[in-house]
Each structure stands twice: as structure tokens, then as C-alpha cells.
Specification:
Elements lengths: L2 H6 L6 H9 L1 H10 L22 H11 L2 H11 L12 E2 L3 E4 L3 H13 L6 E7 L8 E9 L4 E6 H4 L2 H11 L6 E3 L3 H11 L6 E4 H8 L8 H9 L1 E2 L24 H24 L3 H21 L1 E3 L1 H26 L8 H11 L7 E2 L2 E2 L3 H6 L5 H25 L6 E2 L2 E3 L9 E3 L11 H4 L5 E2 L5 E7 L2 H10 L2 H9 L3 H10 L8 H14 L5 H8 L3 H14 L1 H17 L1 E3 L5 E3 L8 H37 L5 E6 L2 E6 L4 H13 L10 E6 L2 H5 L1
Parallel strand pairs: 1-8, 2-5, 3-6, 6-7
Antiparallel strand pairs: 3-4, 4-5, 9-12, 9-15, 10-11, 13-14, 16-20, 16-21, 17-18, 19-20
Helix pairs in contact: 6-8, 9-13, 10-12, 11-12, 13-26, 14-17, 19-25, 19-26, 21-22, 21-24, 22-23, 23-24, 24-25, 25-26, 26-27
């Protein structure tokens, strides 16, 4: 009978509903008022003005295809049939491949040699079949497209590829003087060719996944089935290219248990994608970024993944045991503080202990109850010994589970960890790492840094660690063309000390540690679009005090503020940001009606040019360093990259040459208004080199 009736009978409801209704009665009554539809608004249009007019069905189909409105496309046809518009929505053509299996080494060799001798040097589309998860299992075989117009593909099963003569032809086909190759998400295949067939793919000319990422870096995944529908208007059968790389692909319909049909379809889809996606790269002026930076980088990362980084398993186990012992001690201390034994990882029990039994004052409430996250616990520090014990337990337990057990489980039979490095995850163009995430090895605490002791070079080698010194700040100085920042970098002085002197109006030799820290926080925060609130949170000071520091920074470096504001204005006008190397990032948030969303978009716009330029420079450096090591025929090899840092495994007799090459290549990766400074160090472990 209405809201009043509900509350007259509230005691008859279940306990949970009763409590919720009682707690939120004011909101319930407010919602009941605002949800009433208003029917007395003056309208300037009549029902006749809302009649559907004829429309161009073909244009609608193209638009719906591009926007991936598959369900809406079907509903459009159901709703209007052929009566409205210029005709029915055409059905999407299904891409089917005619796959011929080559069973003998002689036929396979003839085929591969023919591909290499072909008068047409157009891209040769190739895809792999896998025994299990892509890139984490054995190759079943390779599919090549002979003629995309005729849907003609060929399948070379693994037993044929294992023939020595066939392998020689394959090496020649993909070698430095081989045939241009196109594929989708090619790095797992490239790594498998290196590790399983001893074939080094030099001739990659197009990776459709990478190209799609460059065209729109905001997507969460770049499935081949989605791309061939969007760019070529073709539909892949279910199962072919509709899975995320790394997931197990099951052949549920019984089509070709050897993987040949699916691989053939995928290869044909790549061939169909080559013209439209290449045209899209050209239209957005990203061809050079794709061809000269991203494509060469695929091979560098594949080699790095194939080689891996050596691990001292004994040291890693010692660290894990030490952390496990400390977790046990901390658990007992928490039990003593609480006066009972309980599951320390249970949020519900922890709330009961902290806020009911011990009477601590909660600081934040969530939908499910008072928060016990790290930030909330830190605000309770000093109220009871259990808080410090809990914070320490969580730090140690995370290190133990993530890096102690986690890294040990990833050590392969060769004693090395072979992580995966991703080019299509971060919107800024930065590389990321997983399985395991070696980019996340802790550096903020001494305990976390100790894990670097377990990373070592191969026997008889040493580790060269090289990283860019303050590359993001140098990018800001270059992009903003701020004379104060440029002068500080050119002088070779401590940049944070020089910045603090200008911001706080003191002589450089009078800058305090606190002033330097604040200036450093502002400088790095600007690279991420940080504003006064974020600065205040990081410095643990009020927002208005943080605003004073930020204003002083912009007064000292006015070109930086002008650059930030100009970047946002330009991105709002164009809808995207663009780095000096042509990397674009769409920022639709800038046109949002929601103020907070627009603010987030502005931070992204400020961040994109700086982070994107730093990412591009580092990628150029990685590619050039790998080329230089190969050209000099050195045994030194890149084994890991972490953010702006690269680790090279170096034999002692190549120490000086590897040092000079690394410094020259990284320092010359881009010409900025300020010099690119590179830190280099050697050591028997990653920790020793970084120290």
C-alpha cells in the first residue's frame, strides 16, 4: 500500500531487511518522491513527429559492425524487416578456410621454398596451432595462406616441421632476407619458433593485435574475431580467434582435432585484415610507430622471454622460509593482542576484534561494514599494539605469498624465470609483465628489496643494470620548454634540490631534506597529472597547504603550467593526445557531463604525453641496444626490463664494450632539449648492482 504501509509492517520483515529499512528510511522516502514520473512537462513535439523515417540500411549496418552492435543489428532486422529504409540488413559473411594438410617433408620444403621465391613479396599470413594455452605449450603446427581470395590455406603439422630440411627452409623463409610475415599477437609464436624450432623470425611486417592497440589503446583485449568483423566485415566461426591469448582452446564441435582448421581460419582472417588495418594506421599517421618501434620490439621481447633471467633458488627459498617464520610470529602476537585465536585474514572477524572487543575507533565505512584496509589501519596506529602487528603481518604475508612462493613456482627446469612482457596493456604505451609480474618486485622496503638478491646472471657472467635518470622529468622539461628546468638539467645539479630552491625561494645550499622531498613529490606527481588533493595525500598535509606548494612550483616553472593547460585544451578539442613519436590516446572522458570523470580525463591528458614519450624513448633504446649487441656479435644479451631499467647478462671480457654500447644507445635514443642521463652499474646479483 505504499511506503507508509511498508513501515507500518517493518517489524514483520526478515532481520536483515528490517535493519536495512530502518537505517535508510529517509533515503527510502526521498527515492519514492523523486521516482515519480512527471507528466505535465510542455512538449514541443507530437507523436506524429516521432514516426520512423526511411534510413540507409547499408550505412547503419556498417556503423553497427564497426561499433560491434551485433545484438542490436539482429533486433533492427526483427523490428523493421525490409519495410523501412533501403532494404534488409545483409547477413555478415562467415569466414571459412579451405585447409590442405601437407604430410610429407618433401612437400613442405617445396611449399616453404615457393613462398620465399614468390615474385609477390606481399605479407604472408601465418598462424600457429597449440597443444594447450597459447605460447605456454608445444606447437601443433603452422598454417599459411596461399591465396586469401580463394580461402586457400595450408597446414604443416609438427612432425613435418621437425624435419631438418623443412626447418632449414623455414629459417630461410623468416630469416633476415626472408618473406614479410603478418600474424596476430605474434610474440608467443615468435618465442616458440626460437625455443622449439630454432627459427628466428626477422621479417615480421604486421601484427594485427599491435596495430589494433595503436589505433585504440583503451580496449581491454584485441581478439582476432572482433577485429576481422570491425575492419573487414567478416565473421570468424565460434572458437577461431574468439579466445584470449593464453587461455586453453577447446575444440567442442569436433572440427579438426589437430588444430589445423582453426589455425587456417585465423591465418585467413589475418590476411583479410592486412589491407584495412594498414590503411587505418596510415590514416592516423601511426605507420612509422608500428613499423619502426613496436614491430622490432616484438622480437626483442620474444628473445628476452625465451632466455629468461637466472634465479638463485636457494636464496629464494631462504627468503620464503624467513618470511613464513615471521608471519607465524606476527600471527601469535596478533592473537595475544586480541586475547583469542582467530583467522587473521578474515575481515569480518577482524572488525569484531578491532571495533567491538578492543573498542578502536573506525575511520571509514564501506557497504559491508567498517574498513580494515591498510589506509584505515594506518590511521589507527598508536591506539593499540595490534594495529602495528597487523600492518607488519600484511606486508610480510604479501611478500611471502606473492614473491616467496610465487617466484619459486615460476622457476623453470633451466633454473630461470621466463616472464611474459606485454605491449598491448598500458594505455600510455608502457610495457607490462605477468606470469610472473617482474615489474612489481618491491623496492620501497628493505625486506622487499631483498628479493633482488635472488636474481643472478648465468654462470661466468655478471649483471649490467642500466636505467634512465629522471626520464619523466626530462620529458616534462622538453615538452614544456621551461628554461628553469632546462637550466637545472644542463647544469648537472641535483634536480630536486634545484627545484626546491626555486619553489621555496632559498639558496640551493639552504634547501632542507623536507623541502627537497616535497619538490620531488611535486615533480614526479605532475607526470601523473597529480593535483593538490593527491599531493596532500602523499605528503600527509592539508589540501590547501598542498595547493600553496603546487602554486609555488608553477610560479617557479610557469611553462610547465602552460604546457599542462595547453595539453588538456588540445586534447579536449581533438579528442586525443599524441606523443612526439605519433602515439595517440583517445580520452573521451574529457567530454563527460560528470565533473569527476572530466577531472580524471584531464589528469590522463596531462599524463599521456609525458608517460607516452618516456615509453617510446625506452622502447627505441631496447630495440637499438639489442641490434647493437647483435651487430657487434657479442654474447651479452638483454634478459629483463623493468619500467625504465634494463638488465643485460655480460661475460667479463665484454664488460667495457657492453658498457659503452649501452650508454651510447640509451643516451642517444631521442634528441631532447635536455640530455638523457643513464645510470650503469654491475654486480653478481640484481640487488648488488642496484646498490
Amino acid at each position: 500500500g505504499g511506503v507508509d504501509g511498508i513501515y507500518e509492517h517493518v517489524d514483520e520483515q526478515t532481520p536483515k531487511l528490517r535493519a536495512s529499512l530502518a537505517e535508510h528510511e529517509e533515503r527510502v522516502r526521498s527515492n519514492a518522491d523523486v521516482m515519480v514520473l512527471l507528466r505535465d512537462i510542455p512538449l514541443e513535439i507530437s507523436p506524429d513527429g516521432l514516426r520512423l523515417e526511411p534510413f540507409d540500411r547499408d550505412e547503419v549496418r556498417k556503423l553497427f559492425d564497426f561499433l560491434e552492435f551485433r545484438t542490436l543489428q539482429e533486433r533492427l532486422g526483427e523490428a523493421f524487416g525490409e519495410d523501412a529504409g533501403d532494404g534488409a540488413v545483409p547477413a555478415v559473411a562467415v569466414l571459412e578456410a579451405e585447409v590442405e594438410t601437407i604430410d610429407t617433408p618433401a612437400e613442405a620444403k617445396k611449399l616453404l621454398d615457393g613462398f620465399l621465391d614468390a615474385t609477390s613479396q606481399s605479407a604472408l599470413a601465418v598462424e600457429a596451432g597449440w597443444d594447450g594455452p597459447e605460447g605456454r605449450s608445444q606447437l601443433q603446427g603452422l598454417a599459411f595462406v596461399r591465396d586469401d581470395a580463394a580461402a586457400d590455406t595450408v597446414w604443416l603439422p609438427r612432425h613435418v616441421l621437425d624435419d631438418n630440411a623443412v626447418r632449414e627452409s623455414l629459417r630461410a623463409l623468416v630469416g633476415e632476407n626472408g618473406r614479410p610475415v603478418a600474424a596476430h599477437g605474434v610474440k608467443p609464436l615468435m618465442r616458440a619458433l626460437l625455443g622449439q624450432l630454432d627459427a628466428d623470425l626477422h621479417t615480421l611486417c604486421l601484427d594485427t593485435m599491435l596495430a589494433a592497440y595503436l589505433l585504440d589503446p583503451a580496449e581491454s583485449r584485441y581478439l582476432l574475431a572482433d577485429l576481422v568483423l570491425r575492419y573487414a566485415g567478416l565473421e570468424l566461426p565460434v572458437g577461431a580467434g574468439a579466445v584470449v591469448p593464453g587461455e586453453l582452446q577447446l575444440d567442442l564441435d569436433g572440427d579438426a582435432s589437430d588444430g589445423s582448421l582453426e589455425a587456417g581460419r585465423r591465418a585467413l582472417a589475418v590476411a583479410k585484415l592486412v589491407p584495412p588495418i594498414t590503411a587505418a594506421l596510415d590514416a592516423q599517421r601511426m605507420r612509422a610507430l608500428h613499423d619502426e618501434i613496436e614491430i622490432p620490439l616484438v622480437r626483442v621481447l620474444a628473445k628476452m622471454e625465451d632466455v629468461g633471467i637466472a634465479v638463485d633458488a636457494t636464496e629464494l627459498k631462504h627468503l620464503n622460509d624467513t618470511l613464513a617464520a615471521e608471519c607465524s610470529e606476527l600471527t601469535r602476537a596478533i592473537w595475544d593482542d586480541a586475547g583469542e585465536e582467530f583467522n587473521v585474514n578474515s575481515t569480518l572477524k577482524l572488525r569484531e576484534i578491532l571495533f567491538e572487543r578492543l573498542g578502536l575507533q573506525p575511520t571509514k565505512k564501506t557497504k559491508t561494514g567498517y574498513s580494515t584496509d591498510a589506509a584505515s589501519l594506518e590511521k589507527l596506529a598508536g591506539q593499540h599494539p595490534i594495529v602495528e602487528h597487523l600492518l607488519r603481518y600484511r606486508e610480510v604475508e604479501k611478500l611471502r605469498s606473492t614473491y616467496g612462493e610465487g617466484l619459486l613456482s615460476e622457476v623453470a627446469a633451466d633454473g630461470r624465470i621466463h616472464a611474459t612482457f606485454n605491449q598491448t596493456v598500458a594505455r600510455t604505451g608502457r610495457l607490462s609483465s605477468d606470469a610472473p609480474n617482474l615489474h612489481n618486485i618491491p623496492v620501497r622496503s628493505e625486506l622487499g628489496r631483498s628479493f633482488r638478491k635472488a636474481f643472478v646472471p648465468a654462470k661466468g657472467c655478471e649483471l649490467l643494470v642500466a636505467d634512465y635518470n629522471q626520464i619523466e622529468l626530462r620529458c616534462i622539461a622538453h615538452l614544456a620548454e621551461d628554461p628553469g628546468l632546462i637550466a637545472a638539467f644542463e647544469s648537472g645539479a641535483d634536480i630536486h634540490n634545484a627545484t626546491a630552491a626555486r619553489v621555496f625561494g632559498v639558496e640551493p645550499n639552504a634547501v632542507t631534506i623536507e623541502q627537497r622531498s616535497k619538490a620531488k613529490m611535486v615533480s614526479y606527481g605532475l607526470a601523473y597529472g597529480m593535483e593538490a588533493y593527491g599531493l596532500g595525500q602523499r605528503l600527509n598535509i592539508p589540501t590547501d597547504e598542498a595547493q600553496v606548494i603546487l602554486d609555488a612550483y608553477f610560479e617557479a616553472f610557469p611553462n610547465v603550467k602552460a604546457y599542462m593547460e595547453g595539453t588538456v585544451a588540445e586534447a579536449r578539442e581533438r579528442g586525443y593526445t599524441e606523443t612526439l613519436f605519433g602515439r595517440r590516446r583517445l580520452i573521451p572522458e574529457l567530454s563527460s557531463s560528470n565533473f569527476r570523470v572530466r577531472q580524471a580525463g584531464e589528469r590522463q591528458a596531462m599524463n599521456a604525453g609525458i608517460q607516452g614519450l618516456a615509453a617510446d624513448i625506452f622502447k627505441v633504446a631496447l630495440v637499438r641496444l639489442d641490434n647493437a649487441l647483435e651487430d657487434e656479435m657479442l654474447k651479452s644479451r638483454i634478459i629483463l626490463q623493468v619500467h625504465d631499467e634494463v638488465l643485460v647478462e655480460v661475460p667479463p671480457d665484454e664488460h667495457d664494450r657492453a658498457t659503452a654500447l649501452t650508454r651510447d644507445v640509451m643516451g642517444g635514443a631521442a634528441e631532447l632539449r635536455v640530455p638523457l642521463a643513464v645510470n650503469l652499474s654491475f654486480g653478481p646479483t640484481w640487488a648488488d648492482a642496484k646498490a
